[in-house]
Amino acid sequence: MAFLSWRPLTMKLENSITVRNNKCWISDSCQSLGFPVLTKFPSTLWIKRYKQQVFLCRKNNQHCNPFLIVNRMDIYDTTLRDGAQGENISFTVIDKLRIAKALDEFGVQYIEGGWPGSNPKDVEFFKRAKQELHLCRAKLVAFGSTRRKGIRCQDDVNLRLLIEAETSVVTIVAKSWKEQVINVLNVSLEENLAMIEESVRFLKEHDKEVMVDAEHFFDGYSHNASYALACLDAAIRGGADVLVLCDTNGGCLPWHIYETTSSVASHFGSQQRIGIHCHNDMELAVSNSLSAVYAGASLVQGTMNGYGERTGNANLISIIPTLQLKMNYNVVGSKLISLTELSRWMDEVTNVPHQPSRPYVGDCAFAHKGGLHVSAILKDERSYQHIDPSLVGNRKRMLISELSGRGNIVDKMKQMGIVTDSQLQDPEWKRRIQGILEQVKSLENKGYTFEGAEASIELMIRRSLNNYRSPFELLDFTVLTGNKRVYYAVGESNNILTHGVYSSETFRNESITQAIVKLGILETSNGACPIERTRCFEAAEGNGPLNAVNLALKKALVRVHAPLEHVNLQDYKVRILDNESATAAVTRVMVEFYDAETKCVWSTVCAHSNIIVASVQALMDGFEYALLQRLPACFIASEGESSEKSAVLL
Ligand SMILES: CC(=O)SCCNC(=O)CCNC(=O)[C@H](O)C(C)(C)COP(=O)(O)OP(=O)(O)OC[C@H]1O[C@@H](n2cnc3c(N)ncnc32)[C@H](O)[C@@H]1OP(=O)(O)O
Ligand SMILES: CC(C)C(=O)C(=O)O
């Protein structure tokens, strides 16, 4: 067995030992990982390594039975280099600095910043990083390639720029597939080996920690294992610290990765660090990376959210929690709870839309829709969740739709704080819940969709309560829309540029839209109980029907409830549901609102054959929800007081 011999635990290592779930964890880079650190280990503690694992034992124990096993695993982020090779991804130097800072705070061990031999932006990044980037945990890595064919390392611009980047770690890509060496590099097999060995040695002579990314390693190994291994041997002769095996084309299967990595690990022995770099061309990059870890790799390269060339790289946002929660590697410690925030922030910086179905961090990752699922989860959270979402900073969501059962409605009512466990036993409440469920199913059948319109669901539930009185009623509304011909003053029309053509029109057409609304609004006295319903009559002009009604409604409501001034319409989506009926089709309208003061966002939905009616109802619901959020107590009638039902138009 290739055990390293026992040696005393150094102070440095001692400080990095942490305990969690009755297991002891160690971080080789001596980072504080946020777990409770044992205050003092006995000085009799000895340590040794075997296959990327760390064993601890007491010195006096003759047999040295290890009582603690600690695994080492490093995360190497290449978002700033390989991630930037993804289509439509382009980082500024400032973006790169911000991302590197965020990755460091999150706790990855290596951050590949770019390829200084590629472009001036990356040169500037490394220059600014020296002054501005004070990394606490991670090591910054400069990326490049082996020297060009037929020249000395000291004459190779790419290697020189790697040294000038002044990072402590350098990674170079080396060819390891025989055919590629012949067809692409166009050099002899011996010259490629020399390029690898000499380049690594040159970098080691400059005191760098050197990783060699063996490009196309798995394909190369399948075609000619001995040459692929010879490339790694050349890297070792040069002094490489980590050999990174790459599935460059993303075409390998997990068991292929496992077998090849196992062979390489046993070829080089347990002391040699092996890394893995996978691409996602068959959607297997995460699985392949984990297979390599299972086979002995102790460094995983990948990118945030899987950005990268073609279909992307191995997604670290999935790999990190899997390593930590399922495979017991402590990679980022307690920082794991910021995983969801980091993933979404990266999407914003990268200008990539959030993908709700992303494992662990997506909006849908813990969203439960089916009635059976929700009912089971309410009894046992583990029923349909592989982890507690809060471990990765995400949250469970129960959706309400035509696929719901009573459980979905009960959960929503509990969240809203309007039903207690004992009330749930009451037949009257049971009937009410059943009624709401049936209303949801019937409205969805008419074209509503309540997913993504939680405000409408809340209102429906509130309106079902005996003591609810709506904050306002829409008594009448009228929308006028038409066209107005506007004549130019004499001389004004000359040389008017329309669509790039000069013409001498004497008038232009302008569309006009006006809305008139009459509301009965409950007034509140100092935010307390409503005192009376005030009639308000308002009109507004807008650039379209929805805009005009929105302005008129808001004008009327603000007269009584000034804070509604901050409520704005943020998005408006329309979908025709029955294409075959053409203009007689049902239209579904979803409106998103934003309160600039409270920063809350909410959505409402309505479906109707008249698009204006659907829009007005969705707007009213949005304003009603805003008022309920601000003055929840005001619209509950006290006992004995007569309650008024909602302002529903339909
Ligand atoms: C698998 C990967 O993702 S590796 C990283 C890939 N990333 C990138 O290519 C992005 C950055 N690249 C660049 O900016 C440019 O391609 C540069 C600056 C690196 C090179 O640009 P150019 O000098 O114009 O060369 P070009 O890109 O056209 O061709 C690549 C050259 O590098 C050679 N090359 C390829 N791999 C290696 C290697 N591992 N070691 C040495 N030379 C290599 C090729 O043989 C070719 O040289 P040749 O034209 O003499 O045959
Ligand atoms: C340079 C290496 C790491 C690479 O991107 C690949 O082989 O896919």
From TrEMBL:
Belongs to the alpha-IPM synthase/homocitrate synthase family. InterPro entries: 2-isopropylmalate_synth_dimer, AIPM/Hcit_synth_CS, Aldolase_TIM, Citramal_synthase, LeuA/HCS_post-cat, LeuA_allosteric_dom_sf, PYR_CT. Pfam families: HCS_D2, HMGL-like, LeuA_dimer. GO terms for biological process: isoleucine biosynthetic process; L-leucine biosynthetic process. One of its GO terms (molecular function) is (R)-citramalate synthase activity. Keywords: Acyltransferase, Amino-acid biosynthesis, Branched-chain amino acid biosynthesis, Isoleucine biosynthesis, Transferase. It is an enzyme of class 2 (transferase). PANTHER family: (R)-CITRAMALATE SYNTHASE (PTHR43538:SF1), ALPHA-IPM SYNTHASE/HOMOCITRATE SYNTHASE (PTHR43538). Residues 73-340 form the Pyruvate carboxyltransferase domain. It comes from Galdieria sulphuraria. This is (R)-citramalate synthase. Its EC number is 2.3.3.13, 2.3.3.21. Pathway: Amino-acid biosynthesis; L-isoleucine biosynthesis; 2-oxobutanoate from pyruvate: step 1/3.
